[in-house]
Design brief:
globular, protein yfey like fold, single chain, 29% helix, 11 strands, 173 residues, seven-stranded antiparallel beta sheet
Amino acid sequence: MKRNLLVAGLCAGLVAAAAVATAQAAEWRATMAGLGPIRVGMSVAQLERALGTRLPETQDESEDACRQVEAGARFPGTSVMLVDGRVARIDVSERGFFTLSGAAVGDTQASVLKRYGRRISAQTHIDGVDDSQVLTMFSSDRRLGIRFETDGERVTSYYFGNARAVQFPEGCL
């Protein structure tokens, strides 16, 4: 009996944590400068505080130049790119986080193009698979940007941050 109560309590705790994460995701909007407490330009220590967890240690200096880390349970489907020890880009690959203008994974390519108008440009994805496209927009000073990847019909992921990192088509590869 006690064991069943313990298991039920743990399950309820996990459900409650997931509900909190979902509620926070609904409140946080992605801007070119960040998502919730994650901000472009943060150091590793600042990112760890924002995520509430320690990041995995790197194996060698080459990993410190550019690496991608999962953002954790509070940010489902989200990862953070660190370049030279600073947050350079945030990637969103699942539904749940919206941009300031309301775009999200799963939206149609047409709706994103309409939403951003002349400010966004479309190009064939570097892989050139099917009708895949990248839709890119930069801040007025061209220091920050956002890029939506599509399969030709729907947004499959998007990422935002400093303009240089947004243009890395395959992340840190």
